[in-house]
Design a protein that fits this description.
Largest sheet: 3 strands, antiparallel
Strand content: 5-15%
Strand order of the largest sheet: 1-3-2
Radius of gyration: 17 Å
Number of helices: 6
Shape: elongated
Distance between the termini: 23 Å
Number of strands: 3
Length: 126
Amino acid sequence: MSKQELVVVGQDDGSAACCPGLATAPLDDVQAAGLAKIFKALGDPVRLRLLSMIASPSGGEVCVCDLTPAFDLSQPTISHHLKLLRQAGLIDCERRGTWVYYWALPGTLERLSAFLATTRTDEATA
């Protein structure tokens, strides 16, 4: 299957064309605003690391108790960064007793990947 035929998972309602790749078509205002929100959330090194930690475990989710010790930041600051990642649609969470468990939302990650993917392979190999 070529890259032009890929459909973003979780967007079967016809909105798969919401974010054409960089090399296929320019974004309209609505598309640009939606992607800018996501990229803005990823524009902070702490949030980028948090997303990496959340998306990488084999179990698919991470307890906040495992995230906080990895940073030299207070718990409220970590919670603020996690809130921004949730608002951008990159992660989701669920409270289980005292702890909150986070997981990455594959649909948003695939949307970003599809947008950044280029079909101009001849330029990449040059």
